[in-house]
């Protein structure tokens, strides 16, 4: 891709393509030719490298980006543990099926203070596992604060409101029915141009997301690489007083802060493969059966990783003949955390699974359609039917056993105690022994 020159950068222009090489500069002649770290970078800038993988990772998996900035990231005072954030001390591994009512908005919190860990497994110190968060914020981050996670990549699913995310590498505007992925270590701040926000986060401790292989599907379908958008370079060159900026970092689940006298958003140009990006879920090209049986949810995978896949259930046509169209009753070796961005999920009736709520069916926990949905689907006229119009449900699917925090089980006060009793206990026995 050729260099994009924006002498006066527009805030929301994007580079297209998933995990493809990008280069962008806000001032012409910022990016060097040849050496990535010349003796004296142009415009008096500093060269700095962001490494998202090991240096010796195979070329097809190697994610590195060079940035050219006004001052290097190392120019800050020592980090200190931040007392205004409580990291969960325990998670509870339980087989019980769980469902949560819609989570509350928090009109007083900003992005940093509105993060609540619902569950997780593994450890960022060994780069194994994941964490699941609910975010709810009502105010923008203060003008001279930034945040990053050294623990893992954030996959952000917006359910309500708009996130105006200023990252080191440029700006992303993320709305409901869109997602953003902010890689480990990238600094950013979040403004709320449309008021309070709420949504879900999957933090991936191990590796990075990729597009799933298409196999027999062929070269087109599911999420297309060209529909992912990365930011273009945009920078702040103001001079600030010593100690006037606060940079928060999440490190092993705890929050630390450091002060510095310059903005972290001073990257004038960058090139490489390691960067934040966004995706409009409405661009997903759904695959499905045209004969019989309900396909496995893997056909709805947007992004994949050995620790967790991100799967969506968008509006789609059901045309299978002589078949039970909703998901059948099942027990999986995978854990399934589901959320609802908008509308109603077609496999659950009665309003128990609502937008801004969630459910967790952990490893080998039995689940499936509730009694009403089973009755309707068993007797439905099997004509072509479009389901999910005006709806978007998603799933974080993981082979790992996901523990639930005290906040998720008790403090948030959103767990539905009658989930089992309302959903599956009413199922009736229909068996008759053949005579």
From TrEMBL:
Belongs to the homogentisate dioxygenase family. InterPro entries: HgmA_C, HgmA_N, Homogentis_dOase, RmlC-like_jellyroll, RmlC_Cupin_sf. PANTHER family: HOMOGENTISATE 1,2-DIOXYGENASE (PTHR11056:SF0). This is homogentisate 1,2-dioxygenase. It comes from the Eukaryota. Its EC number is 1.13.11.5. The lineage of its organism: Eukaryota, Fungi, Dikarya, Ascomycota, Pezizomycotina. It comes from Staphylotrichum tortipilum. Residues 13-281 form the Homogentisate 1,2-dioxygenase N-terminal domain. One of its GO terms (cellular component) is cytoplasm. Homogentisate binds at residues 345, 367. GO terms for molecular function: homogentisate 1,2-dioxygenase activity; metal ion binding. Keywords: Dioxygenase, Iron, Metal-binding, Oxidoreductase, Phenylalanine catabolism, Tyrosine catabolism. Its cofactor is Fe cation. It is an enzyme of class 1 (oxidoreductase). The active site is at 294 (proton acceptor). Pathway: Amino-acid degradation; L-phenylalanine degradation; acetoacetate and fumarate from L-phenylalanine: step 4/6.
């Amino acid at each position: 891709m050729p260099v994009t020159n924006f002498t006066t950068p527009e805030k929301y222009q994007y580079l297209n393509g998933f995990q493809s090489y990008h280069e962008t500069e806000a001032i012409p002649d910022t990016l060097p030719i040849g050496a990535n770290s010349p003796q004296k970078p142009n415009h008096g800038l500093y060269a700095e490298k962001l490494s998202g993988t090991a240096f010796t990772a195979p070329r097809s998996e190697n994610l590195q980006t060079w940035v050219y900035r006004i001052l290097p990231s190392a120019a800050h005072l020592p980090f200190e543990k931040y007392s205004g954030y409580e990291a969960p001390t325990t998670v509870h591994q339980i087989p019980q099926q769980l469902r949560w009512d819609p989570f509350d908005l928090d009109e007083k919190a900003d992005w940093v203070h509105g993060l609540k860990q619902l569950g997780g497994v593994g450890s960022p110190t060994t780069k194994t596992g994941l964490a699941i968060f609910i975010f709810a914020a009502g105010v923008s981050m203060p003008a001279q604060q930034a945040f990053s996670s050294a623990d893992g990549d954030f996959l952000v699913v917006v359910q309500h409101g708009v996130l105006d995310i200023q990252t080191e590498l440029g700006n992303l505007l993320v709305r409901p029915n869109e997602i953003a992925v902010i890689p480990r270590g990238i600094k950013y701040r979040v403004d709320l141009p449309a008021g309070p926000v709420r949504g879900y986060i999957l933090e991936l401790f191990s590796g990075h997301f990729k597009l799933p292989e298409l196999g027999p599907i062929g070269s087109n379908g599911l999420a297309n690489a060209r529909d992912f958008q990365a930011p273009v370079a945009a920078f702040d060159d103001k001079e600030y007083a010593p100690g006037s900026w606060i940079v928060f970092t999440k490190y092993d689940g705890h929050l630390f802060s450091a002060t510095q006298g310059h903005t972290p958003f001073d990257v004038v140009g960058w090139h490489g493969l390691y960067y934040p990006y966004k995706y409009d879920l409405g661009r997903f090209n759904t695959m499905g059966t045209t004969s019989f049986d309900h396909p496995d949810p893997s056909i709805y995978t947007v992004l994949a990783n050995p620790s967790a896949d991100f799967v969506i259930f968008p509006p789609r046509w059901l045309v299978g003949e002589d078949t039970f169209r909703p998901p059948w009753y099942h027990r999986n070796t995978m854990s399934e955390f589901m959320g609802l961005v908008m509308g109603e999920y077609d496999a659950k009736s009665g309003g128990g699974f609502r937008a801004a709520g969630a459910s967790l069916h952990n490893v080998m926990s039995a689940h499936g359609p509730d009694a009403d949905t089973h009755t309707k689907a068993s007797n439905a006229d099997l004509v072509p039917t479009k389901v999910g119009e005006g709806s978007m449900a998603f799933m974080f699917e993981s082979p790992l056993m996901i523990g639930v925090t005290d906040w998720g089980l008790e403090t948030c006060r959103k767990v539905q105690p009658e989930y089992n009793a309302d959903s599956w206990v009413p199922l009736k026995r229909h068996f008759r022994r053949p005579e």
